[in-house]
Design a protein that fits this description.
The complex is a heterodimer of chains A (about 375) and B (about 260).
Chain A: E1 12-16, E2 19-26, E3 47-58, H1 60-76, E4 79-81, H2 87-95, H3 113-146, H4 154-164, H5 169-192, H6 200-238, H7 241-248, H8 252-290, H9 295-305, H10 308-334, H11 340-372
Parallel strand pairs in A: 2-3, 3-4
Antiparallel strand pairs in A: 1-2
Chain B: E1 3-14, E2 17-28, E3 32-37, H1 43-51, E4 58-63, E5 66-67, H2 73-80, E6 83-86, H3 98-109, H4 114-127, H5 143-154, E7 161-165, H6 173-190, E8 193-197, H7 201-207, E9 210-215, E10 220-224, H8 227-233, H9 237-243, H10 253-257
Parallel strand pairs in B: 3-8, 3-9, 6-7, 7-8
Antiparallel strand pairs in B: 1-2, 1-4, 4-5, 9-10
Helix pairs in contact in B: 3-4, 3-5, 4-5, 8-9
The chains are: A alpha/beta (about 375), B alpha/beta (about 260).
Bound molecules: adenosine-5'-triphosphate and magnesium ion.
Chain lengths: ~375, ~260
């Protein structure tokens, strides 16, 4: 129905007495439509009759115009006589209502700081409550799982563990190797001034074991796995899959949240230990290349640098990070809306919350360590 | 009447699984063509091949004598611009309001100004009885409303060919017959050709004037013709049984013995 170019007759109309006459081609996509002014019916007395004998080709552009006319006529209490129209136009017009309610104006979004603040506080309180309920549900699910009665499927847990563990090895290796190497660089430049080259090994080992390996691994996992969990759950929300689980009576906390959290709790401490090793390897490579340190000497120094309880401290921290990332990403996914944009913002929000949360929790651990003299 | 779409010896497959083989039929310009058959026999898959989402394993689909799948990508997009599609599940863009869903094709492919676009959007929604839902999000609609909004979106560009996958599934009888009217009027008024997948026998008898019947077991077309013709003189007992809502006659022992 695309008109060949150059053969268009512009759409025109006029009202003469009680008759509305249309001419030309009324093809919407070629611009062939017109608005029907509100005051056009001023001179019409009883009933508007229509004549479209002069109309060539037409599509919804014509129908849109005639619908406007029909509504104006209805609003003005004037009859609308469609007898002069071809049957097909008459039928299409017949499907369209005489009156439409004006679409409701968007609710005014004035700036009410107090209301906003109150709403924010209430939101925070509600969120805390929901999180607590979720945590209780997950914990009881975990207890049931330990007794072998959880409504969680082993395959789901295995798939999640495979994705969060072996699947993350490469990126965790790269990040920690580079962090170890960077620490060695920075340390080397300073310590060489005091001819204390050997202490680079101590610096790298302590920094990695106490802070960097756990934090960097957690940040990587927040971006990689936390974002993925949030997006997955938000998509299930949009497809009504969560609703279906609820109706069947499968607790969402058991079926989705528990495997997500457990997979992170199982893998992150191991990834942390692995990250320490790879990071120290990075430091080792840089030190051998840049400093007057022997391989054996570096290894010996490293072994003496960190007591075992430091590893335990990092291990516990990793578990805390894992729970934080797992719970926050699942909760964000569950509370997402149902559109595609909501999936995107859920993933973003899970990553941001995960990273900020990891660093905040790490700061808390630093204070605790200080107090306990660890 | 000339054939607008010709399906020639088409075989449809997902990987090694053949869904339908050796399908050949013509869709006449201006007809309402029904693709019929039991659930899971491959009707939606056939539709996908016709609208350019799934390349047939073999065979060709001619649009106005032009081989659609042999054409380069850009040409296929240009041909596809003449198609309007209503997906089985609505497939509304969930981040956009109903009005924006209908407006997006108009904004992308026409030079119309905002006022005209708004009027056309209202018209398309008015035709399906949804003019009051312009500002609602798809997630806030009922299943049937989503169907109708999807139809309004399919109508956005005044398409030459409308592909409807189960347009009346999930609609109440009155809305459903209203939709039949709408489809008839779109064909008569705007000169559109309509290819539809449907199980709704009343609406098939009321509006379809040609069709093809796909069978899941033999994996090919076992009858062609208008639904009412198939009901009255279908020939194949499986087809007449389907059209009369009867269960097919029990199989003969010889058939049951086969593996
Ligand atoms: N993406 C896909 N990958 C593999 N197989 C598929 C895919 N989509 C559909 N199928 C298979 O193709 C067959 C036909 O599916 P199709 O959706 O075309 O059925 P249908 O005739 O439209 O059924 P219904 O009436 O229930 O909508 C089914 O057996 C289905 O399992
Ligand atoms: Mg289907």
């Amino acid at each position: 129905m695309k008109p060949p170019p150059g053969t268009e007759f512009p759409p025109t109309w006029h009202i003469d007495g009680d008759a509305l006459t249309l001419r030309g081609d009324w093809l919407a996509q070629a611009g062939g439509t017109a608005a029907f002014p509100d005051d056009a019916l001023a001179g019409v007395t009883r009933s508007l009759s229509l004549d479209m004998a002069g109309v060539g080709r037409w599509d919804s552009g014509l129908v849109a115009f005639l619908w406007d006319a029909k509504r104006s006529a209805a609003a003005a209490g004037i009859g609308f006589d469609t007898a002069g129209l071809p049957g097909s136009v008459r039928k299409l017009l017949g499907l369209l209502p005489d009156r439409t309610e004006p679409s409701p104006a968007a609710a005014s979004r004035g700036f009410h700081p107090l209301t906003r603040f109150g709403g924010w506080i209430i939101g925070m309180l509600a969120e805390t409550g929901i999180l607590a309920v979720l945590l209780v549900a997950v914990s009881s699910g975990g207890v049931r799982a330990a007794a072998g009665r959880a409504r969680m499927r082993g395959v789901d847990l295995l798939a999640d563990v495979r994705d969060a563990g072996p699947g993350a090895l490469i990126i965790v290796s790269v990040v920690n190797f580079l962090v170890g190497a960077i620490l060695a660089f920075v340390g080397a430049v300073q310590l060489r001034k005091f001819a204390a080259d050997m202490y680079v090994a101590d610096l790298v080992a302590i920094a990695l074991v106490r802070e960097m390996a756990a934090v960097m691994t957690a940040i990587v996992m927040a971006g990689r796995t936390g974002g993925a969990y949030a997006a997955r759950i938000a998509t299930m929300q949009g497809n009504e899959e969560i609703d279906a689980l609820t109706v069947v009576g499968i607790p969402v906390a058991d079926y989705i949240v528990l495997p997500a959290i457990l997979s992170l709790v199982f893998t992150m401490p191991l990834l942390y230990l692995y990250g320490c090793m790879v990071g120290m390897l990075g430091g080792f490579v840089v030190s051998i290349a840049m400093l007057s340190v022997t391989g054996a000497g570096y290894l010996h120094e490293t072994l003496g640098a960190v007591p075992l309880n430091q590893f335990a401290f990092g291990f516990v921290k990793s578990i805390a990070f894992a729970m934080l990332i797992g719970v926050s990403s699942c909760r964000i996914g569950l509370k997402a809306g149902r559109s595609s944009a909501d999936v995107g913002s859920a993933a973003t929000s899970a990553v941001v919350t995960g990273i900020v949360g990891v660093i905040a929790v790490d700061a808390i651990f630093a204070v605790i360590a200080q107090v306990l003299n660890l | 009447m000339t054939a607008l779409l010709s399906v020639r010896e088409v075989t449809l497959a997902f990987g090694p699984n053949t869904i339908q083989h050796d399908l050949s039929f013509d869709v006449r310009r201006g007809s309402i063509f029904a693709i019929m058959g039991g659930s899971g026999c491959g009707k939606s898959t056939m539709l996908k091949a016709m609208i350019g989402l799934l390349r047939p394993a073999t065979g060709s689909i001619l649009v106005d004598t032009e081989d659609y799948w042999a054409a380069p990508e850009a040409r296929r997009t240009a041909i596809g611009r003449r198609f309007g599609v209503l997906f089985q599940s609505g497939a509304l863009w969930s981040a956009l309001t109903v009005g924006e869903n209908v407006a997006l094709p108009l904004r992308m492919f026409t030079g119309l100004n905002d006022t005209d676009i708004r009027r056309l959007v209202r018209l398309k929604l008015g035709l399906v009885g949804m003019e009051n839902a312009v500002d609602r999000l798809p997630a806030e609609l009922s299943g049937g409303m989503r169907k109708r909004a999807g139809l309004a979106r399919a109508l956005a560009l005044d398409p030459d060919v409308l592909f409807l996958d189960e347009p009346s599934a999930g609609l109440d009888p009155i809305t459903s017959s209203r939709l039949d009217d709408l489809i008839l009027n779109l064909r008569d008024g705007l000169g559109a050709t309509i290819v539809m997948v449907s199980h709704e026998l009343p609406s098939l008898f009321a509006i379809a004037d040609d069709g093809v019947f796909l069978d899941a077991e033999t994996k090919t077309a076992i009858a062609q013709g208008s639904p009412s013709h198939l009901r009255d003189h279908g020939g194949d007992p499986r087809v007449t049984a389907f059209m009369r809502r009867e269960r097919p006659a029990p199989r003969t022992p010889a058939q049951q013995d086969r593996p």
